[in-house]
Input
Amino acid sequence: MTRLSTPDILQGTLDLLILRTLQTEPMHGWAISDRIQQISQDVLQVNQGSLYPALHRLEHRGWIEAEWGISELGRRAKFYRLTASGRKQLAVEASEWERMATAISRVMKLA
Amino acid sequence: MRIRDLRLRVQALFFPRRAERDLNDELTFHIEREARKYVDAGVDPTDARVRARANFGPMTRAAETCRDIRGISIVDTMIRDVAYALRTIRRAPTVALTIVGTISLGLGLIAAAFTIFAATVLRVDAVRDPGSLLSVRRAVAPVPAAGAQVVPKLTRRQFDALRRDSSALADAFASVPDITSRIDGRMMEGQLVTGNFFQVLDVRAAIGRTLTPDDDRPAGRRVIVLSHKAWSRLFANDPDIVGRRVLIRAQPYEVVGVAPEDFYGLNAFSPDYWAPLSLVGQIRPWLAGHEDDTAVDVVARLAPGVSIAAAREALHAWALRDGSGVQIDAQPLDRAVRFSASTLLTFAPLFIAFGLIVLTGCANVANLLLARAVTRQREIGIRLSIGASRARIVRQLLTESLMLAVAAAACGLVLSRVILNVAVSALTRTMPPELIEFLRLDVPHLDWRVVAFLVIAAVASTVAFGLLPALYATRLDLVRAVRGEAVAAGRPGRLRGALMLVQVTAATLLLICAAIFLRSAMHASALDPGLRMHDTVTIEIPNDTLRPQMIAAVDADPSVEAIAGSWPTPPPLGRPPSATASTSDGSVARVTYRVVTPSYFDVLGIGILRGRTFTDDETRAGGGVAMISEVLARKLWPDGNALGRVLQLNPDSDPDAGHRALDRLTQHHRQQEPGLSSPPVLIVGVTRAVAGLRIGEPEADVYVPSGIGTPRMDLIARVQGDPDDARRALLQRLSSIDPNMGQVFTMRSLARLETYPLRVGFWLTIVLGVLALALTLSGIFSVLSYLVAQRSKEIGIRIALGATAAGVGRLIVADSMRTVCWGMAIGSGLAVGLARLIAVASAGTRLGPIVDLFDPLAYVGSVMTVASACALAALSPARRASCVDPIATLRQE
Output
């Protein structure tokens, strides 16, 4: 595994990534981690040990909600969906991230 | 969002199984899906599964974190912990029983002490703002003459002036405590108070009314207010009590009210009634006409906004203005009464002794838990290695301890009630009958403070002693623990040593105390007081109008052989007043004197060395004669010829009103010789010195004659048969003449009183000491047995290599015995230190002649007992160690 080369996802950033991933459609846990990995071209690997606690935390905060459905394997799976307040939270966190990223890249370029 | 959160939590709480299943499904689905991904990529299915699992990491830990987020984890884990603890306890019930038994024993003892403490010292009278109450008294002036000096009190007159003049005080009341009298055949204790007593304290009557200033006018109304205790114990909670009349000293008093239950009149023990102070002359007849000179206790309430310092200033200023020469001192009542040195001195040893038992018990429990922690290493190791956090396991072990604590607290509560009841009934059975009438011991009510104390103590002791092993148990080398090897026990070894040290120290200390008490009691009862006490009875006659009938009745009693009279009360109770004696050749001595009838010496068995006793003529004429003790004779006339010499007696003018009686007794002397301020007396006899009881007042040096009919004299009767029977007969006979008669004591009981506290102390400390020793021995035994079991492999190898049985035994025992020696040394050292402390303290001076605090035999005997008992406890484990079969132990590998 290429564990060494992949940075741990910052605490808090994982929440943002999950919310963003769920923006398009409801997904179960594995699909979320798979999607993040794919889109980041394997740069970001979600540690499963923290994925599910994060999902449960977001659910308790009310930003996502869960529903049991039938997965592509034909088995019972828990699908998470973004709620209205989750959408708002995503907007807030996304713009916050944007600001941070620009700030950091400016420093990197100009300092 | 809140609602959603709550809904999820509630679901998880009430449908825990569904929540668990969902979590499990979710996580396993993830792994399955991951495996499918690998299978799709062409990996072998078994391989794929393994890789998926490896990717996921420890599943239990992830699940645990998810559970934490659920937010009900506290409740949830608690339920699990409790269930788990119950299973553990069921699996090893003896261990749990031992722990609960040991801890509850200690807790029961200390809770019993605390019950008494809470009922007496921690109790607060239900009065308004007790913080602003001051105890006002005369400051102790430096005493020129040596010897015990009673601090003089303020008089009623001074109190009245003080109350009138002082602006720093909102108000003040005065009282006279401890008025005991026989009322309707029962001893009752009263407190005489000024009329504003209840107003100053702002206490309202539970039934009827309280006393008012009106009741307290000169020659006031004969009314009393009963305390709640007296109302319920002596009058069976009679609702129609108000208006009833009781006789006190032959006078009818009307009951006007009952005080509330939580009001004890600022005393540790509630008196039976309160009566107006102006009636003092009727209750104490010798004060009649001198009511203003009554010595009183004064309690004042600070005026609003005045500090104690300011009030003190004002009182000083008043004392100077008043010009009576008294120095006034004011102290907050709380400190003056509740936390005085004597209360602390009473309770501190009790708490220390009981605390030592708790400590030894806890040490045993800690040892047990430590030993068990080692045996549970494997279990805990497995749990740690499959993902339980250290905190989780410590929490689990603590839950176990807490459950035991709750059980121990409950048992301790029951035990403390049993202990108190047994102690009270034992005291009541062994106490002299004279004392029981006074003390009326009963078990204090259970109150919430005792329960709170017990719960806190139980939790503190169990948690403290459960936590150490728990912390130790979770610091493991996982690999070895799972394999079932006991992990090196370096730290608990030291801990065990410390615990054993505490136990041996406590046992030694307590046994030394017990031995000192026993030796002192034996020593004291072997001493001859120089008075005939085994068959004599003293009789108080408070009512002088009935004196002739009373004397006739005593004389007529068939058990009475001889009677005598004495003022003050016969030894050891009465303190003879002091005087200055001067001889014609100019030598001066401080003496004490007693007024007696001629038969006094015969009845009390005081030998007359030279000369004779008084004649009847001398008592009638008050004829200027006296007898003196051989000690005084030798002091004043070293030539040994005291007979026929003349002594000039000048009675001290004692501020206490007691001396007035003597004035009257000696009045006729003055009338005979008006030019003299005091009578010269001719010495007609010299008596043997009386050692007296060491707890009692010393016997007088000078005896002055008087007739048995003299007012205020007490009687002494020599009786046949059992003095207790004679006492009962006399009480019956005399109370038919005067239902409010005074006390009748057998002098045998008074003599027994000297050693009684020592005996109580002995039984208390011996029971505690034996308990502590038993706990220590069982501790040593179990620790050594455990060590033998743990080191059996090493022992086997040593024996195989040629170690002797004695060598192996030494190996096992040496460490512990060193600890035992240290414990005994520290225990004896503590005892000596404590003895020094007591000897220096004021109580020591009173104990001094009775108790030998440094009795070497007590120390040596106790240390030997502890040493041999400990050796005995070590014997069986040591023998077991030497009998280890090397082949068997080595084969176990």
